[in-house]
Amino acid sequence: MTPSSTPSAAPPPRQDFWLWRLVATGMAFTMFGVGGLLLRLLVFPPQRLIPGNAADRQRRARWALNRTFRFFIRFMVRVGILTVDFKGAERLGRPGQMILANHPSLLDVVFLVGHVKNANCIVKHGLARNPFTRGPVSNAGYITNDESFDMFDRAADVLRKGETLIVFPEGTRTPQDSLPRFHRGACAIALRGARVVTPVVIRMNPRSLTKGEPWYRIPPCRMRYVIQVGEDIDPATWSNAHPLPIAGRRMNDYLHAYFDAELTRHAPAGAPAPAAGPDNEQARIAPQVESKLDESTGN
């Protein structure tokens, strides 16, 4: 048999009531969209009539989102779409805490907002224009990631005021078979405003709901999430030792190395080794090497 005629590996067999999971996944996506509209039209307007200031209105909207996402998670678990094991969730939600997580799938923000009461969140700018999500985003006072200086100032300010802030520093979902690549903006915000940074490692097997993947392309078995809350990180470790731009780079290198190690160590047996981008490779090989360019230019 010639190499060109070698048959490709057979796809894994469909398990866990595959056809039912396909139907249930469609139901879940419909529920998510309709739920966003119902919150916007039927829940948030009456909440605004209750006496209180802007902070009170945001707190009520975040409470509604927290309860809605909790219900949504329970629904997906009950109908067999996924399982989730959230370890250490009780350590999330403290004043001035930045929750910094990787972003393997579409559901990551649902898990975190559903487990952290009254949390703020940096979300994609497009969600503020989407008819299904703009109501929750605007009423909860979430920060839209338009990459402006004002966005960085707002994010640091909410941390200084004692809010909990959820951040996905990749800015988009992690590509298949890759390790996360973080933008340094999250570290810049943390160094300016966070009392503590808590890493949250999100692992899922099999991978699904990645960027550009249609909802109906479901995996052969139910998705299994393990969400692990890591040990707190003090941003002053870097801000006290280096000027701000260099501190941001060093902190970002540390976080790359941390997430790379956690995700690689717990990779499923038989899964392909995730590929590292240039930033990840540098962080893993030499996270402590001094950058003379940084020292001289502050970039």
3D structure, described in words:
Keywords: Acyltransferase, Membrane, Transferase, Transmembrane, Transmembrane helix. This is Phospholipid/glycerol acyltransferase domain-containing protein. Pathway: Lipid metabolism. GO terms for molecular function: 1-acylglycerol-3-phosphate O-acyltransferase activity. With 299 residues, the chain is α/β, with parallel strands linked by helices. The chain has a single domain, classed as Glycerol-3-phosphate (1)-acyltransferase (3-Layer(aba) Sandwich), CATH 3.40.1130. It is 44% helix and 14% strand. It has ten helices and seven strands. Strands 1-7-6-2-5-3-4 form a seven-stranded mixed sheet, with helices on both faces. The relative contact order is 0.13. The N terminus and C terminus are likely disordered.
Set out the fold topology:
Blueprint: H1 18-49, H2 54-78, E1 82-87, E2 97-101, H3 108-115, E3 119-124, H4 134-139, E4 143-145, H5 149-160, E5 164-167, H6 185-193, E6 196-205, E7 223-229, H7 236-239, H8 244-265, H9 278-285, H10 292-297
Parallel strand pairs: 1-7, 2-5, 2-6, 3-4, 3-5
Antiparallel strand pairs: 6-7
